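dumping this here before i forget
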Amino acid sequence: MHQDTDPDWEERLAALWARIDEYAGQAREAEFRAEVDRLVNELPGNSPVAPFERACAFDSTGHPDRAVTLYREALDLGLDGYRARRTKIQLASSLRNLGRPGEGLALLEPELHAPSDELDDAVRATLALCLAGLGREREGLSLVLGALSAHLPRYQRSMRNYARLLIEPAPDEGARA
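structure:
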């Protein structure tokens, strides 16, 4: 929860997002965005949560071009904490979708060193997509295998090693250089 919101507002927002699939189709998607607007209009005028939620609504209804500016506005207004990390993930994804994976990569790489939370795997998955967009699929695969390894009931050590070996040079490669 952000300082500009309260539990009731957050619950109403979560309930709206839980129903997003009911808003399929272009006209209904506009209705969904209008519902998000109604909620964020309850927030103070300079709330960074407002552009973030509007960006999410545009992004989720197929308008990453409209979302990018709003995500940046949210960060510029000082969005912090959990929503700021979500913003960076979603902004990087939108940039990739718009053919700008390098910008997404630059935005998300610092998140690999941020304090760990439940979004760690989303960071790695989005980074992997950005890397693939740049023709660096082996690095992307390494990231997702490393993230996946933590969730496996067995073979965790093997998968971590395979992930590392995808990006490390072979022992005799260095001798040839």
